[in-house]
């Protein structure tokens, strides 16, 4: 036992061999001089800098990504001064100019009187973990983006519409700007599906979405799929006259596309009906009744023969 204890004593050959054969890179900094007392030779394999080139904490700080340097140094100094063990993730510069993500785990060694004697720690290469993390983050962003898109047509979905209309509604009221909305629905789409099949129906919906999307050109205009074959166009800062023109553009663009719809009772080409509405600044309307009113106008357009616009 005594033998083993001696062989394992800090500073012994066995101890050194153990330290230098781990993947983690051990190091020690003398607190008063801020000089490296030791750094494992593994550092050279990871970063390319020889152990002898790690002289002071200045070398450590200067071999850090500029975006990480300030907070990491400030954080580590503050924690060390307070005598608190800590860890920090940062990008370390390699000798050939790349960056490697490192997790530095630091233990503060104190003197019997409580003052800081030295810092000892391990550096871990966490690049692989960070890469996975980044991939997960971008995947999550993509998922969020997708969750606001209609899977079939690629335009905004109902969820996105609900969020945007709330925002635009309060914007319009706050800034005393008009806000218009068009509800659009394909005429006799049930007959279209019955005649051409559901897949062809899907293709038709995509086609219609693309055309309607091209009709509204301002950055904040939003086309969303409201339901099955119903689309909604939100038009911020758009008055009644401009909304009327846009509605007519949508109606005639669809007609001009000459999409065959043989079973339609009103003509051989695909048509849409539109309900239009505008929130006039200063009026005290509520959002839901406004949407309902526009929807009712769409229904009226259907009742009055389809392929037409009913505005408020
Ligand atoms: N292919 C396809 N059809 C859909 C989709 N969503 C809804 N529909 C169809 O759209 C049709 C809508 O029918 P209705 O609500 O009766 O309306 P309509 O036949 O268009 O008649 P009007 O609107 O009164 O002119 C139904 O047959 C639905 O199955 C979809 O994602 N793909």
Automatic annotation (TrEMBL):
Protein name listed in UniProt: diguanylate cyclase
Listed PANTHER family: DIGUANYLATE CYCLASE DGCM-RELATED, REGULATORY COMPONENTS OF SENSORY TRANSDUCTION SYSTEM
Species, as recorded: Rhodanobacter soli
Domain of life: Bacteria
Reactions catalysed: 2 GTP = 3',3'-c-di-GMP + 2 diphosphate
Name of the top EC class for this enzyme: transferase
InterPro entries: Diguanylate_Cyclase, GGDEF_dom, Nucleotide_cyclase, PAC, PAS, PAS-assoc_C, PAS-like_dom_sf, PAS_fold_3
Pfam family, one: GGDEF
SMART domains: GGDEF, PAC
Domain (PAC) ranges: 86-138
Enzyme Commission number(s) of this protein: 2.7.7.65
NCBIfam families documented for this protein: GGDEF, sensory_box
Domain GGDEF: 177-312
């Amino acid at each position: 036992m005594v033998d083993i204890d001696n062989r394992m004593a800090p500073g012994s050959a066995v101890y050194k061999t153990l330290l230098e054969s781990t993947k983690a890179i051990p190091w020690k900094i003398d607190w008063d001089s801020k000089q490296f007392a030791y750094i494992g030779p593994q550092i050279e394999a990871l970063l390319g800098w020889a152990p002898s080139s790690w002289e002071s904490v200045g070398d450590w700080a200067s071999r850090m990504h500029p975006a990480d340097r300030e907070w990491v140094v400030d954080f580590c100094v503050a924690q060390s001064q307070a005598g608190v063990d800590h860890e920090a993730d940062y990008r370390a510069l390699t000798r050939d100019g790349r960056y490697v993500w490192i997790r530095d785990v630091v233990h503060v060694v104190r003197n019997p009187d409580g003052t800081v004697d030295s810092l000892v720690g391990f550096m871990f290469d966490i690049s692989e973990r960070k890469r996975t993390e980044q991939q997960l983050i971008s995947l999550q962003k993509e998922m969020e983006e997708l969750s606001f898109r209609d899977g079939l047509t690629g335009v905004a979905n109902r969820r996105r519409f609900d969020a945007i209309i709330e925002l635009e509604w309060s914007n319009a009221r706050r800034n005393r700007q008009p806000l218009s909305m068009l509800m659009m629905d394909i005429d006799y789409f049930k007959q279209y599906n019955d005649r051409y099949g559901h897949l062809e129906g899907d293709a038709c919906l995509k086609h219609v979405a693309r055309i309607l999307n091209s009709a509204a050109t301002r950055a904040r205009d939003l086309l969303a799929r409201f339901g099955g074959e119903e689309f909604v166009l939100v038009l911020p800062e758009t008055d009644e006259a401009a909304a009327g023109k846009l509605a007519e553009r949508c109606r005639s663009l669809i007609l001009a596309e000459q999409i065959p719809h043989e079973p339609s009772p009103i003509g051989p080409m695909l048509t849409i009906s539109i309900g239009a509405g505008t929130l006039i600044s200063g009026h005290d309307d509520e959002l839901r009744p406004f949407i309902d009113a526009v929807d009712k106008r769409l229904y009226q357009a259907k009742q009055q023969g389809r392929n037409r616009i009913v505005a408020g």
